[in-house]
Design goal:
Length: 177
């Protein structure tokens, strides 16, 4: 029995590639959440006018990797203290966000963020939005598995590569063998 987590941590190409490294992750789908327009396109989301976040939806086996594990990776590979920005990507579509699927996920992520704040894990306050997932829209096919399909893409090499390496180094016990 798998569960789902929906996370926005900047460009979905980069977060998708990093989460695919984890044992227990069955699939990662790039998409959009949190906006006000039905069936948004990439171009519309990039305009910043739909209110959507670029997200990944992770389908995972909770017997192998927990929701807490996913949050630990998520808060390690992106900067949750920058409002509407991740690295070179600027705009509300790149905001840090967790879209929870049920009350248990909401409680877990709120506690997780409270613990990070109490530990002063970051120099600045965490600005990650925590909202219920209302609708997940799958991104266009060319966005799916983008890093795998385009390993020499300069953007991916510069931005996704370091996230993948961070997962492999800091979470080696959780990486697929």
């Amino acid at each position: 029995m798998t569960e789902k987590a929906t996370l926005g941590g900047g460009c979905f190409w980069c977060t998708e590639a990093a989460f695919k490294e984890l044992d227990g992750v069955e699939s990662v789908t790039s998409g959009y959440a949190g906006g006000s327009v039905e069936n948004p396109t990439y171009e519309a989301v990039c305009s910043g006018e739909t209110g959507h976040t670029e997200v990944i939806q992770v389908e995972y086996d909770p017997e192998t990797v927990s929701y807490d594990d996913l949050l630990e990776v998520f808060f390690t590979i992106h900067n949750p203290t920058t409002l509407n920005r991740q690295g070179p990507d600027v705009g509300s579509q790149y905001r840090s966000a967790v879209y929870y699927h049920d009350d248990e996920q909401k409680e877990i992520v709120e506690t997780f963020i409270d613990q990070l704040e109490a530990a002063e894990a970051y120099d600045d306050p965490i600005v990650t939005e925590v909202e219920p997932l209302e609708t997940f829209y799958e991104a266009e096919e060319y966005h799916q598995d983008y890093f795998e399909k385009n390993p020499n893409d300069a953007y991916c090499t510069i931005n996704a590569g370091p996230k993948i390496e961070k997962v492999r180094e800091q979470f080696s016990e959780k990486v697929k063998q």
